[in-house]
Amino acid sequence: MKLVYDQAKCSGCAVCVSVCSFCRKGYVRPVNESNGRIKFVYVNPTDSYVVVCHQCEDAACAKACLQEAITRHSATGTWMVHVEKCIGCGLCVDACPYGAIYIDAENGKADKCDLCQGEPACVKYCAAQALKLADE
Amino acid sequence: MVSYGGYCGRLLRVDLTTKKISTEVLTDDFIRKYVGCNGFGAAILFKELPARIDPFSPANKVVLATGPLTGTIVPCTPKVGIFTKSPLTGGFMDSYAGGHFGAELKFAGFDGVIIEGVSENPVWLYIHDGQAELRDAGKLWGLSVPETEAAVRAELNNNAVHVASIGPAGERLVRFGCVMVDMSHAAGRGGVGAVLGSKKLKAIVVHGTKYSVPVANVEATKAVADRIYQHISETPALRDGMPKYGTTGALKANQASGILGTRNWQSETFEHASNIDGDACLKELFEKNLACFQCPLRCVHFSRIKEGKYAGTETIGPQYETMYSLGSVCGIADIKAVAKANEYCNAMGMDTISAGVTVAFAMELYERGILTAEDLGGLQLTFGNDDALLAALERIVTRSGVYRTLGEGTKRAAEIFGGETYKYAVHVKGLELAGHSGRGYKGMSLGYATSPRGGSHQDMRHLPERAGQFDRRDPNGKAQLNYDITSTTTIRDTLNYCAMIEDVIGRVGLNERHAELLNTVTGLNFSVQDVQRLADRIWNLERAFNVREGMSRKDDVLPYRFMNEPIPEGPSQGMHCPPEELERMKDELYKLRRWTPEGIPSKELLLDLGLDDVAAELWP
Ligand code: SF4
Ligand code: SF4
Ligand code: SF4
After folding, report:
1. pTM to 2 decimals?
2. How far apart are the first and last CA of chain B?
3. Pick from A13, A23, A42: which is nearest to B298 by CB?
4. How far apart are the C-alpha atoms of B33 and B590, rounded to whole Å?
5. What is the ipTM of this complex?
6. C-alpha span between B327 and B324 (Å, rounded)
7. Residues B111-156: pLDDT tens digits?
8. Which of A45, B157, B549, B600 is most buried, with most CB under 10 Å away?
């Protein structure tokens, strides 16, 4: 499974980032913070966009990790960080071509989208249906 | 630290005269008493402004404030309120803009900003992560709103900032100069942009990466938000209607009822309505849906004109009010011309409602021979002449000739032109009327006459009458309806959710949902009665502000036309609001509100509401 994003449908509401943050942390993360599981990038009122993890077949983040802390989840096929193995070195952050993985400011470990274990909140709340869940 | 959720806990104070910038801590007492946004704005302005100052003097202040829901996951809560003494009405003005600015201000660490004094040279204010600085705006002065935004982004080398700025209209003190947020969302009404212009403050730019807004009860807030999302997804008018049409659907509805302001309200049906309605927008203009922060309704539309006379026009909008003010009220029958005029007003930072109604006023004076083409600098300012409309708007901004007078708004212009011109000036207290009939709905007649803002449609609301929930032709019971609706709109502007979800929370009278929304985010534990008291406190504070400026019963009137000229034709033919009828409704309302027959909040009422300082000033 992976997220598919369609900028033509996106209204720039930032609901996706807000619910992602709130569901996990209980507050809305400032939308311009450079880290987050899904990112909202404001360019101007008509051209803002969001950045999502592509759950790459050949994941650069996982390859770059010397601790082998990023592995594929068997059921959903998403790449996940094993926090106990992660040493927060940031090699994955440098490796990801999309800027979709980051170091969580609270625990100093890598963090990325895990597709909410198969029921992504961002997809659920995106009224514009700019975010969808695709199989494969 | 404040003990309530929903706040950063700090206000920023910027003195433009001394360039001193300081932060003030919000106190629990202040929060309990005023809760947010318009409560904060009204309290600060009443306390800090001396009576009877010139709105353009250094003594005037501009307050920006957010509500406790802004920056949380409660949907449709993006707004920032801007408060000042209005250069149009001379009274209390609150004007609200969507976009991302409100939430970003909180993410930058502030619930609001107080701007005072006047700068010698043009400046802009940069607020970021708990700090603020004034920067030189010498090179920005004179730029349009989009140019201003581009310039500050370039200077900061950061696209992610959100900008509230004024255009040349505000700089040149056009009295309906507005503040534009993120280029496209207007804090439109009452000339808040002109006041910033008088202070030489070109823009306020916010960027927040650190602060977030705590809520009192995370699970309950999620449940409340979920219920709103669910309501939206189960209501076709919100789920499908808003993204498709936004507010543009109102034009067709008002035309069908014969209450669409046309040719300076000489008529309320427009024979070309179908050329400028929501379907015309879909066909000719709309390209993409946009939305404010945290809003699933995405009622905003990006429009682009590809061919014809107005090819190349790119604007966000028009929405209903603009289709009325730059469309039917000026007799314009081409939606592309409306879009072009909308693009121009947004770029210049000019309220489309006041601008359009003012040009319509001049059009009527021209057609009646009171203003000649020579007076008008050669323009044949006839209804329906789109070229003349655009040229007139440009000259209002450049403030040339008779257009300098028009830039003072219809009330002052009529005073300057003299004679019978007051009969054609469609304003209340100096604020040009919005696009919801002042004579086709009895509730709106009373609402416009008594709104603290003047001719605004955002205090009294027309929808319950339009939907047939209340008889729009019957003056009886409209005082109670006014009380019930203005209580909910006051709380809407305090918690600061968007008018588009009023119906989800409750439009007529305060209820458990208003209290729940407030309590889950803040933890204040207000009963419905407490929320009613809050609404009464804020409404009376706004009223008291106006009373202190010298306003009373005599100012609670409608435009001459609405009191004296029945609607001439169409489904609402014959309707108007004669003075005797208006006075009767006012008597009822004043009694209900515990105001004196002169329309002054009684001393007992003010003391009951905990407004002892206000009582002391009004009843020395
Ligand atoms: S919720 Fe959907 S429409 Fe809104 S910003 Fe995210 S992807 Fe775009
Ligand atoms: S974090 Fe980046 S590299 Fe890793 S799977 Fe996602 S998009 Fe691919
Ligand atoms: S799928 Fe879940 S974790 Fe990933 S961005 Fe969306 S809400 Fe966040």
Report:
1. 0.96
2. 36
3. A13
4. 24
5. 0.94
6. 5
7. 999 999 999 999 999 999 999 999 999 999 999 999 999 999 999 9
8. A45
